Amino acid sequence: MTRFAKTMIATLFLSIALPLVATADQADKIAKHERWVTSLAYSPDGAMLATAGGQSLQYRPGDVCLWDAKSGNLIVALEGHASNAWSIAFSPDSKSLVTSSYDGKVIVWSVADKKSTATLEKHKGWCRTVAFHPKGTHFATAAEDGTAVVWSVEGPKEVKELKAHESAIYQVAFSPDGNTLATASTDKTVKLWDWQSGKENAKLEGHTDAVWAVAFHGNLIATGGADRQLRLWEPNGKSLGALPGHADWISGIDFSPDGTQIVTSSLDRSIRIWNVADTLAAAGPIGVAAAKVAESQTQFNTADDAIAATEPMIEPAKKKADILGAVAKARAAAEVLAQVTEVAAKFKDVAFVKVDIEGAKKASDEATKAADEAAKPLAGDKPFTEQVTKLKAGPAAEANTARDAAVKAAADLAAKLDQANKTKDGATKALADAKANLKALSAKQARVVNGFKSTVWSVAFSPDGKLVAAGSHKSLQVWDLSQPKELFPREEKKEESGE
Q1: Rounded CA gap, 477 and 37, in Å?
Q2: Are 273 and 315 members of one domain?
Q3: Fewer CB within 10 Å: N-end or C-end of the chain?
């Protein structure tokens, strides 16, 4: 089970266990809204902020809310989704909304009439994302099954289906000219499609985990996801840089209207505002720093693997050397006994020649017994046991050679372990220094906005670029970037006294 699924299941159980909090239409101000905001969008005319969310994935109706962007008051809570509303998009003329939900339904809404005009049930699984064509003539949806669908607003009716990925699609986005549709997927790639012909024009590869978000501005593409990196690309698929900074998954991305800034939201309970020019300029040094981190990490891993492989081998190697040493002593003692016995037989009639056969036999027996006892702990090592048996029947010279080789092998392993420990120590320091350098470089690229009590799911610039709205697991917040300060600050709950 993925971390995301576990988080959702835990949240789902929590939402079932707790009493139902204020419904969307009761939370009449942004400051009071305490439910999931999984997606949000400013109306292109700047008058409204639309949010999608809910309280649980499946068991309670989803929220679709329209807020007055100036006052923060709720305009209307649109009812229609039976499960969590997951994605939302405004038409370029601000007159329509499209939303999608956990149960796969897509609803088209009339903003003026404050009601749905169509419900589409093409997707059979979780429909994670919707996006409007820049001309307002079409919109796109995509789901867990890796399928993206482009719809004509007239009708609405399906005009193109793309089996874009084998894995789930988390977000779709149209290019500024409307000719390209980007699909971001859990397969770690983003694909760029000529959606009218169904041709794949490019694949953005480089993320090391699921891609959750994609956004266009001019000839620049920004992506982010579970590997915690903001990546910038050219439309031909060329990578312009990878920028770390967030401590957890990047869940949303948006360009400022003038394209000079990028805002990202994250599960680390923060949003970051990146200066595009500075970010592009820093991509090279950050890439070098990231490469140093990777190099140091590889050295550390290699050394750690060497330690893990070598350390358990040293004691058995020493034991084998000791056993073969004992065998060599036994063979030497046996050869001495043989020599003594031969001398005794040869000079048995010479009175003044005295040979201590009994002493030599005792020494040989003791040495043989010691070798047998020494070999018992490794009796289960069949190849070594066979070697020992052969050496016991052979000349002492062979046993000496085997002993010397075993002693050398044990010494080599000890030296290898010592070198691996030294390499690991050096790599540990190098890795710490490289990470610190990368963190320092990354920290200079973005302004961090904290103050969120839970996971931040979505983020968007206002049409004038002065405000940023962010939706989290427990709140909807709007920030004035010129201050910076939070607009419509959340109202602190008063504790009830027992008096």
Answers
A1: 10
A2: no
A3: C
